[in-house]
Specification:
Blueprint: E1 7-11, H1 21-25, E2 34-38, E3 43-46, H2 51-58, H3 66-75, H4 84-101, H5 106-116, E4 122-126, E5 129-135, H6 142-147, E6 150-154, E7 171-175, E8 181-187, H7 194-212
Antiparallel strand pairs: 1-2, 2-3, 4-5, 5-6, 6-7, 7-8
Helix pairs in contact: 3-7, 4-5, 4-7, 5-7
């Protein structure tokens, strides 16, 4: 059952400098004028332009996990292009349909959803543990995916079970080029039908790659170096904020 939280916006004192979370997601430098809080116990800072979209997000937000937070804002309409929310919905549905028609394993379904977002992936088994591998630079070469910064998508210790035996939500773990574990990126929301879970997992990873791939280049800077997990990633130059259309097929990372 979906729970909708009540929200309210409270002004912050003029001396209290806070960044707007929505501005940080889009790479802008906006200062908050209020804090939008919800009966969930969570709260986010917002500027005047982003108060409404932040309120929409807060009605359903359950945690501050980064990839999910970005996904929530984009789904709520945070974009630089008016058509992007409709594009997002159509691609999310396409990923769900692709997963539903794939099989026979849960990994096959996830890989089909990832492919719908233009993300190459590979089935991998290592010492009895199986998972889906994605190179942070979205390489389509399996050997290259193993030698650069990479994401392991796993469901327990077996990502290749028959689809009807899937019982643990997908989780995404980030590893450096030298194979050292960096951190867990997100865990899919439990209780979703598998095709829907795969689609949302693919979208969450697509959003994370758009925001963070530049921080983990193929010539890895070493374990954790340059990774500031206490703040949202900002746009990295190039004269434009990230847009939801960056995660669509045909839009490689800039």
């Amino acid at each position: 059952m979906t729970v909708t939280f009540s929200v309210r916006a409270s002004k912050v004192p003029s001396w209290f400098q806070m960044p707007c979370i929505a501005c940080q997601i889009t790479g802008q430098d906006g200062r908050a004028i209020c804090v939008v809080s919800a009966t969930s116990g969570l709260g986010l800072a917002a500027c005047l332009d982003h108060t409404e979209v932040t309120q929409r997000v807060m009605r359903s937000l359950r945690d501050y996990e980064l990839a999910g937070l970005r996904t929530s804002f984009i789904s709520a309409g945070l974009t630089t292009q008016q058509s992007a929310p409709d594009q997002l919905s159509s691609f999310l549905q396409a990923a769900k349909d692709a997963a539903a028609s794939a099989g026979p394993t849960e990994g096959d379904m996830l890989r089909a959803a990832l492919a719908a977002f233009g993300i190459p992936s590979f089935d991998v088994e290592d010492r009895g543990v199986s998972y889906v591998l994605v190179g942070v630079d979205r390489t389509a070469d399996e050997g290259a995916a193993h030698t650069g910064p990479r994401v392991f998508l796993h469901s327990g210790e077996d990502a290749m079970r028959p689809a009807d035996q899937h019982h643990e939500p997908w989780a995404a773990s980030l590893y450096a080029a030298d194979g050292e574990y960096i951190n867990e990126l997100f865990v899919a929301r439990p209780g979703l039908p598998l095709a829907e879970e795969c689609a949302h997992t693919a979208l969450s990873l697509a959003c994370w790659l758009v925001a963070n791939a530049h921080r983990y280049p193929r010539h890895d800077r070493g374990h954790g170096e340059g990774a500031d997990h206490d703040r949202l990633p900002e746009a990295h130059g190039h004269g434009r904020p990230h847009s939801v259309t960056d995660v669509m097929p045909g839009h490689p990372p800039r």
